[in-house]
């Protein structure tokens, strides 16, 4: 029979899955000039041992508030092509920036975003994804995130970024 202290040691020694998120390519495919003046996305790496960084820039003409809906559909790389997977995210932009994992990429680097986001130019450079304490296992290794933003059911912009996800098994203490 296990004592309480032995049970606590076993629980703390459980191997947990974490992962490393590596963006590979990013592109903005459509911009509705009624809502956005311009937008750009790219992936940068500063050296061979440097991580990959996601850069997003743009200028909005209207305030971004709860009417902006972010739709993210994930495609899995299978048999040398991207196929739609079961992973999808649909949320208002204000909820997106409050989320600890998706919005955490902005908060981690000091970009203090609050809704509504006033019109103007924005430059989010050298972003990495906070996956250290992600509570779930990611289901596949290579994927493409297809992102569209709608404003009152009107397409405001679209783009994608592809990524590679490496499982990093670590001990949780």
From TrEMBL:
Keyword Signal: yes
Signal peptide segment: 1-18
Pfam families per UniProt: DUF1091
Cited InterPro entries: DUF1091
Alphabetical keyword list: Signal
Protein name, UniProt field: Uncharacterized protein
């Amino acid at each position: 029979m296990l004592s309480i202290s032995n049970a606590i040691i076993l629980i703390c020694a459980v191997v947990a899955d974490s992962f490393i998120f590596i963006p590979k390519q990013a592109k903005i495919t459509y911009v509705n000039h009624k809502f956005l003046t311009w937008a750009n996305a790219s992936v940068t790496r500063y050296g061979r041992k440097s991580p990959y960084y996601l850069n997003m820039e743009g200028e909005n003409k209207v305030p971004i508030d709860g009417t902006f809906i972010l739709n993210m559909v994930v495609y899995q790389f299978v048999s040398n092509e991207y196929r739609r997977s079961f992973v999808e995210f649909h949320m208002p932009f204000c909820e997106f920036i409050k989320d600890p994992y998706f919005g955490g990429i902005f908060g981690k680097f000091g970009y203090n975003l609050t809704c509504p986001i006033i019109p103007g130019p924005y430059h989010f450079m050298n972003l990495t994804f906070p996956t250290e304490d992600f509570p779930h296992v990611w289901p596949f290794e290579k994927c493409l995130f297809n992102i569209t933003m709608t404003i009152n059911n009107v397409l405001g912009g679209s783009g994608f970024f592809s990524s590679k996800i490496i499982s990093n098994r670590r001990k949780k203490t």
